[in-house]
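fyi for ur records
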Amino acid sequence: MPHSVVTGLIAGLLALVSAPAAIANVNNSSNWAGYAIHRSAVKFRKISAVWTEPTATCRAGHRTYSAFWVGLGGFSQTSRALEQIGTELDCTASGNEKASAWYELVPAPSRTIRFAVHPGDTISASVSAIGHRVSVALYNETAHRWFRRTVHATHLDVTSAEWIAEAPSACTSPTSCRTLPLADFGRATFSLASAQAVGGHVGAISDRRWRTTKIRLTPGGRRFVVSQGAGQSVGTATPSALTQGGSQFTVTYSSAFLRFNPVLTRRRTALRAAYLEH
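which gave:
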């Protein structure tokens, strides 16, 4: 059943709210879990990684959502762009899991793509940007299926790169959004994670040429709204330490008891919401 979810866009837009400027090694976010890299003198040309589409634990009557992606931009509070591609894993109202794939170049709308993906499939993903041309690619190593597209983007942000497991969000207006319940995806491992800077240098997440921020998804970590009220159990996600030379980590789902009643935060900055239909 379709639902209005700003999977890719709000990954960027809520990053403007929940991720601080590039000053910390660890950050709490209401919708991101993973790693971001950034440095004032560095611009990025490409990001890539491999992950296995997780298997969700679903219950009838409980709609929950999760997304896994790589992207360029969107980390800075002043960013107005984010270029990303990834997969989504949701639990439907009937208690079934549903996997899909998408890409997005914020501020343009998200695009659902015809790309077969199922839990257990190994997915390779990359985003590259040269000038105003952005190339996004997914490869299902299990099914041997490719998706590639190159598009022109008026607005670009290449000041950061991210590997993220996300709780998608829904918007009622361009400046009013809420984080949706996170699906219990168990564990999601990002491997072979690398980024290429303008100038040609290629490095892992932990490369010393840029700063690395670890991001934990915790509803109490920031002031942005979560969909449940006080007294509810909510999903959280925590990335592990980096392994394999700084190119691999695992995001693990867990649940927490929400002890407060969050209030929707509104911003007057130029946030734009384009709705992704699944």
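The mean pLDDT is 81. thats all i got for now
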